[in-house]
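Handoff note, outgoing to incoming analyst
You'll be picking up this chain. Sequence as last confirmed:
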Amino acid sequence: MKAHMWGSTLVADGKLYAGDEDGDLTVMAASKEKKVISETNLGSPVYGTAVVANGVVYIQSNTHLFAFANGAGKVQRPD
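Most recent structure output, in case you need it:
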């Protein structure tokens, strides 16, 4: 990860989720071989552990709460 990790990793649906102090969120295949599925920067540190509830993965950064689900689309922000 090349940065401090304060939260635990989460394994769900064959994937491993890990966030770090640089704000990077990495999703990897939960397998013996290293296979990165996705990497993104959330814009602020991730100090907690991701949580899954009702098919949604919730990840909190220092400033935001993100919710990821299949087919969710883009969320419209109120003005």
